[in-house]
Amino acid sequence: MSGRWYEKDNNSTTNEKLNKEINEIKLYLERTRRTDILKCWPKSLIDFTVTHSPLSIHNVFTQIESIKLLEVISSCKVYQNYMLTPDNKSRAQVCNYTSMYAIMDTFYNREIQNLISLSKNLNTFQDLCENDRIALIKYGCTDIICLRSVAYYNQPNEYWTLVMDTNNSFIVKVDILKPKGDLYYGFKNYLNKIYFEWDSDPIILDL
């Protein structure tokens, strides 16, 4: 019994350190531009040097890990361009599959552009050959868009809010996918599991 309590305490301590680390990085990002961070570290050092000594201000990540984490979080800011705000007063509900396809086409085109912009800001992505970069975007974009859909999902009422611009948005209820069977139940299971873990903290999706 005492062993279980010891294991639980260790996990709690690790989570506290990780949360503290993430909060420090978020605060650091607010004060420092990504370009300033990368200027301090040669690209060869970032990509190839292995270090095991953590930063003096951090307890969890090494220097290289911290820099790469900052790079990812900074690149993910592209997803903040279109967020639900009080100005999005014009909201229409999508009632059929045909209308949903037309709206989702526009919405997903923008999300794909966001993903491309994000990827171009990652040094490891730029180091790949062109064919590999195209393949990663082509075969990974659908999964990433679906995973990030929880960011604009209302779990109590089971609908997505698709923000098209600063004034217009559409409500799409998950029930509209019922005719698709497995797709509907797959989304339902994923959204119900991830929603409370995510708890409206976008950094979880970024990582």
UniProtKB/TrEMBL annotation:
Domain of life: Eukaryota
Keyword set, alphabetical order: Receptor, Transcription, Transcription regulation
Record keyword Transcription present: yes
The keyword Transcription belongs to this UniProt entry's keyword annotation: yes
Protein's name according to its UniProt entry: Uncharacterized protein
